[in-house]
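Handout, page 2. Input:
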Amino acid sequence: MPNSMRDVASFLAHWDHPEANRPPVRLRTSSYGNINTVGLPGVHEADDLDPAHPQWRGAIEPGVRSLVDAVTQDWRLITYDSCQGHLYPGLDLPPAERRVGILPRDRTEYARAAAALCRAITAVTTDLPAAVQVAVGRAELRCETTGRASPVLDLVLRRGTRHGWPAYFDAVDAATRAVTDALRGERPTEDGCHCPVPHSTASTNEEAAWVASRPR
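Output:
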């Protein structure tokens, strides 16, 4: 799947300036629940909005709104992508999992967000339905204007390896409620995560990951 945005710097600047102009955008919903500019299932272009945009709520697919709210309202972080997950019966498209993408403002926010996500996941893992697993992935968001890559974090509710897609979609709303509660019980702070590695090693890896992939 492509992981790119038209203008990352402009998007970041807009997010923290609610007084900036925000023109209307085109939102269309597919028969499978996808919200994008064309109203078609699958991965298609969608405008990059922020919470101050009048159409912000309408641009977030209903199934993932609570996760987006926890990240943007409770944690005050920036989301660059979200998906409620979709089954595509009758189409030659693979199912999509529920996810939220986080775009940290700087390396400090990146480290704190990653640690907070780790703590939340550790706390909630045993409470999830068997058909759903939760994970955080590290990735890069490419700016189509400059070609630069920004480090991002992706929170994903994955299908359990021993379960089919119908079981996943039957359980994903309950899993979402549990993960949302776990996120709201945490905050991105200076505290570390619960990963079973020495703190010095974690710090070194975090720094290396950021330096290797940050925009230059």
